[in-house]
Amino acid sequence: AQSVTQPDIHITVSEGASLELRCNYSYGATPYLFWYVQSPGQGLQLLLKYFSGDTLVQGIKGFEAEFKRSQSSFNLRKPSVHWSDAAEYFCAVKAGNNRKLIWGLGTSLAVNP
Amino acid sequence: NAGVTQTPKFQVLKTGQSMTLQCAQDMNHNSMYWYRQDPGMGLRLIYYSASEGTTDKGEVPNGYNVSRLNKREFSLRLESAAPSQTSVYFCASRQRGEVYEQYFGPGTRLTVT
Lengths: 113, 113
Known about the structure:
The structure holds two protein chains of two kinds. By secondary structure, chain A is mainly β. Chain A has strands spanning 3-5, 10-14, 19-21, 24-26, 32-38, 44-50, 56-58, 64-68, 73-78, 87-94, 102-103, 107-112.
Protein backbone atom coordinates (compact mmCIF):
# COMPACT_ATOMS: atom_id res chain seq x y z
CA ALA A 1 0.00 0.00 0.00
CA GLN A 2 1.11 3.51 -0.66
CA SER A 3 2.36 5.47 2.32
CA VAL A 4 4.04 8.72 3.22
CA THR A 5 6.51 9.11 6.06
CA GLN A 6 7.67 12.32 7.61
CA PRO A 7 10.37 11.10 9.99
CA ASP A 8 10.62 14.29 12.03
CA ILE A 9 7.65 15.06 14.23
CA HIS A 10 9.09 18.32 15.51
CA ILE A 11 12.01 20.50 14.41
CA THR A 12 13.38 23.69 15.94
CA VAL A 13 15.66 26.00 14.01
CA SER A 14 17.04 29.46 14.60
CA GLU A 15 15.84 32.34 12.49
CA GLY A 16 18.14 32.72 9.51
CA ALA A 17 19.26 29.11 9.56
CA SER A 18 18.63 26.72 6.72
CA LEU A 19 15.85 24.17 6.86
CA GLU A 20 15.24 20.72 5.44
CA LEU A 21 12.09 18.74 6.15
CA ARG A 22 12.10 15.13 5.09
CA CYS A 23 9.42 13.20 3.25
CA ASN A 24 9.64 9.60 2.04
CA TYR A 25 6.98 7.77 0.10
CA SER A 26 6.23 4.22 -0.80
CA TYR A 27 5.00 3.68 -4.36
CA GLY A 28 6.32 1.76 -7.34
CA ALA A 29 6.06 4.47 -9.96
CA THR A 30 6.56 8.21 -9.83
CA PRO A 31 3.75 9.74 -7.80
CA TYR A 32 2.47 13.27 -7.74
CA LEU A 33 4.01 14.96 -4.71
CA PHE A 34 2.91 17.92 -2.66
CA TRP A 35 3.98 20.00 0.31
CA TYR A 36 1.39 21.94 2.28
CA VAL A 37 1.82 24.37 5.16
CA GLN A 38 -0.63 24.97 7.98
CA SER A 39 -0.14 28.07 10.09
CA PRO A 40 -1.61 27.99 13.61
CA GLY A 41 -5.39 28.04 13.52
CA GLN A 42 -5.51 28.07 9.73
CA GLY A 43 -6.31 25.73 6.90
CA LEU A 44 -3.69 24.12 4.69
CA GLN A 45 -2.01 26.03 1.89
CA LEU A 46 -0.15 24.45 -1.01
CA LEU A 47 3.57 25.31 -0.99
CA LEU A 48 4.67 23.40 -4.06
CA LYS A 49 4.07 20.31 -6.15
CA TYR A 50 5.93 17.91 -8.40
CA PHE A 51 4.39 16.02 -11.30
CA SER A 52 7.22 15.46 -13.75
CA GLY A 53 10.19 17.18 -15.36
CA ASP A 54 12.79 19.10 -13.39
CA THR A 55 13.25 17.35 -10.08
CA LEU A 56 13.93 20.61 -8.23
CA VAL A 57 10.71 22.58 -7.85
CA GLN A 58 10.24 26.07 -6.54
CA GLY A 59 7.29 27.04 -4.41
CA ILE A 60 5.87 29.99 -2.60
CA LYS A 61 7.47 31.76 0.37
CA GLY A 62 11.00 30.88 -0.79
CA PHE A 63 10.59 27.11 -0.39
CA GLU A 64 11.91 24.48 -2.77
CA ALA A 65 11.80 20.70 -2.85
CA GLU A 66 13.78 18.05 -4.64
CA PHE A 67 12.39 14.76 -5.91
CA LYS A 68 14.89 11.92 -5.65
CA ARG A 69 13.56 8.76 -7.24
CA SER A 70 16.42 6.59 -5.98
CA GLN A 71 15.64 7.56 -2.39
CA SER A 72 11.84 7.79 -2.76
CA SER A 73 12.11 11.20 -1.19
CA PHE A 74 10.73 14.68 -1.68
CA ASN A 75 12.45 16.86 0.89
CA LEU A 76 11.46 20.47 1.47
CA ARG A 77 14.16 23.11 1.87
CA LYS A 78 14.54 26.78 2.61
CA PRO A 79 17.91 28.57 2.74
CA SER A 80 17.02 31.04 5.47
CA VAL A 81 14.08 30.56 7.80
CA HIS A 82 11.93 33.46 8.99
CA TRP A 83 9.97 33.53 12.23
CA SER A 84 6.76 33.50 10.20
CA ASP A 85 7.67 30.05 8.84
CA ALA A 86 6.75 28.48 12.19
CA ALA A 87 3.92 26.13 11.23
CA GLU A 88 2.99 22.52 10.56
CA TYR A 89 4.21 21.09 7.26
CA PHE A 90 2.55 18.18 5.50
CA CYS A 91 3.82 16.05 2.66
CA ALA A 92 1.20 14.35 0.47
CA VAL A 93 1.24 11.93 -2.42
CA LYS A 94 -1.21 11.04 -5.15
CA ALA A 95 -0.45 7.56 -6.37
CA GLY A 96 -1.90 5.95 -9.48
CA ASN A 97 -5.54 6.47 -10.37
CA ASN A 98 -6.54 7.11 -6.79
CA ARG A 99 -8.47 10.37 -6.52
CA LYS A 100 -7.33 10.77 -2.94
CA LEU A 101 -4.15 12.13 -1.48
CA ILE A 102 -2.13 10.12 1.00
CA TRP A 103 -0.89 12.33 3.79
CA GLY A 104 2.12 12.26 6.06
CA LEU A 105 1.56 12.96 9.74
CA GLY A 106 3.22 16.33 9.54
CA THR A 107 6.31 18.06 10.90
CA SER A 108 5.91 20.88 13.36
CA LEU A 109 8.47 23.65 12.85
CA ALA A 110 9.42 26.06 15.60
CA VAL A 111 11.67 29.04 14.90
CA ASN A 112 13.84 30.55 17.61
CA PRO A 113 14.56 34.29 17.42
CA ASN B 1 -13.18 34.91 -4.94
CA ALA B 2 -13.66 33.36 -1.48
CA GLY B 3 -12.24 29.90 -2.31
CA VAL B 4 -13.47 27.28 0.18
CA THR B 5 -15.64 28.48 3.02
CA GLN B 6 -16.78 26.53 6.07
CA THR B 7 -19.38 27.24 8.71
CA PRO B 8 -19.38 27.35 11.62
CA LYS B 9 -15.82 28.11 12.73
CA PHE B 10 -16.37 26.75 16.22
CA GLN B 11 -19.01 24.51 17.74
CA VAL B 12 -19.60 22.82 21.07
CA LEU B 13 -22.02 19.91 21.20
CA LYS B 14 -23.26 17.63 23.91
CA THR B 15 -22.99 13.88 23.40
CA GLY B 16 -25.92 12.68 21.31
CA GLN B 17 -26.67 16.01 19.65
CA SER B 18 -26.63 16.33 15.89
CA MET B 19 -25.25 18.99 13.63
CA THR B 20 -24.26 19.71 10.05
CA LEU B 21 -21.00 21.27 8.98
CA GLN B 22 -21.35 23.32 5.83
CA CYS B 23 -18.78 23.71 3.08
CA ALA B 24 -18.97 25.68 -0.15
CA GLN B 25 -16.48 26.45 -2.90
CA ASP B 26 -16.71 29.03 -5.65
CA MET B 27 -13.92 27.68 -7.89
CA ASN B 28 -16.16 25.41 -9.97
CA HIS B 29 -14.29 22.37 -8.69
CA ASN B 30 -15.66 18.91 -9.28
CA SER B 31 -14.25 17.03 -6.30
CA MET B 32 -14.78 17.86 -2.65
CA TYR B 33 -13.43 16.27 0.52
CA TRP B 34 -14.01 16.19 4.26
CA TYR B 35 -11.07 15.55 6.58
CA ARG B 36 -10.60 15.49 10.29
CA GLN B 37 -7.36 16.52 11.95
CA ASP B 38 -6.33 15.20 15.35
CA PRO B 39 -3.03 15.71 17.18
CA GLY B 40 -0.41 13.19 16.09
CA MET B 41 -2.69 11.65 13.48
CA GLY B 42 -2.38 14.08 10.61
CA LEU B 43 -5.27 14.42 8.19
CA ARG B 44 -7.72 11.57 7.83
CA LEU B 45 -10.25 11.45 5.03
CA ILE B 46 -13.84 11.03 6.15
CA TYR B 47 -15.76 11.20 2.87
CA TYR B 48 -15.22 12.59 -0.56
CA SER B 49 -17.29 13.43 -3.60
CA ALA B 50 -15.72 13.04 -7.00
CA SER B 51 -18.53 14.91 -8.69
CA GLU B 52 -22.00 16.24 -8.06
CA GLY B 53 -24.30 13.38 -7.11
CA THR B 54 -21.59 10.97 -5.97
CA THR B 55 -20.04 10.34 -2.58
CA ASP B 56 -17.56 7.76 -1.32
CA LYS B 57 -16.23 6.71 2.05
CA GLY B 58 -12.74 7.58 3.13
CA GLU B 59 -10.65 6.16 5.97
CA VAL B 60 -12.89 7.10 8.91
CA PRO B 61 -16.55 7.38 7.77
CA ASN B 62 -18.26 5.84 10.79
CA GLY B 63 -20.54 8.26 12.60
CA TYR B 64 -20.76 10.67 9.68
CA ASN B 65 -22.96 11.25 6.66
CA VAL B 66 -22.44 13.60 3.75
CA SER B 67 -24.53 15.31 1.12
CA ARG B 68 -23.27 16.79 -2.12
CA LEU B 69 -26.08 19.27 -2.46
CA ASN B 70 -24.86 20.72 -5.75
CA LYS B 71 -21.52 21.39 -7.37
CA ARG B 72 -20.68 24.12 -4.87
CA GLU B 73 -21.75 22.59 -1.57
CA PHE B 74 -20.71 19.51 0.38
CA SER B 75 -22.05 19.09 3.90
CA LEU B 76 -20.97 16.76 6.70
CA ARG B 77 -23.53 15.59 9.24
CA LEU B 78 -23.00 14.12 12.68
CA GLU B 79 -26.24 12.37 13.61
CA SER B 80 -25.35 11.58 17.22
CA ALA B 81 -22.16 13.27 18.29
CA ALA B 82 -19.64 11.41 20.45
CA PRO B 83 -16.62 12.75 22.35
CA SER B 84 -14.39 10.81 19.91
CA GLN B 85 -15.59 13.20 17.21
CA THR B 86 -13.96 16.14 18.91
CA SER B 87 -11.62 17.35 16.20
CA VAL B 88 -10.87 20.03 13.66
CA TYR B 89 -12.73 19.41 10.42
CA PHE B 90 -11.47 20.62 7.06
CA CYS B 91 -13.24 20.74 3.76
CA ALA B 92 -11.22 20.76 0.54
CA SER B 93 -11.91 20.87 -3.16
CA ARG B 94 -10.07 19.97 -6.35
CA GLN B 95 -10.71 20.62 -10.00
CA ARG B 96 -11.00 17.83 -12.52
CA GLY B 97 -8.09 16.78 -14.65
CA GLU B 98 -4.35 16.69 -14.21
CA VAL B 99 -4.30 19.33 -11.50
CA TYR B 100 -4.49 17.28 -8.35
CA GLU B 101 -3.80 19.79 -5.63
CA GLN B 102 -6.55 20.33 -3.11
CA TYR B 103 -7.66 23.70 -1.80
CA PHE B 104 -8.64 23.87 1.85
CA GLY B 105 -11.14 25.80 3.90
CA PRO B 106 -10.23 27.39 7.24
CA GLY B 107 -11.64 24.54 9.32
CA THR B 108 -14.31 23.97 11.96
CA ARG B 109 -13.19 23.26 15.50
CA LEU B 110 -15.74 20.92 17.06
CA THR B 111 -15.83 19.92 20.71
CA VAL B 112 -18.19 17.21 21.94
CA THR B 113 -18.68 17.09 25.71
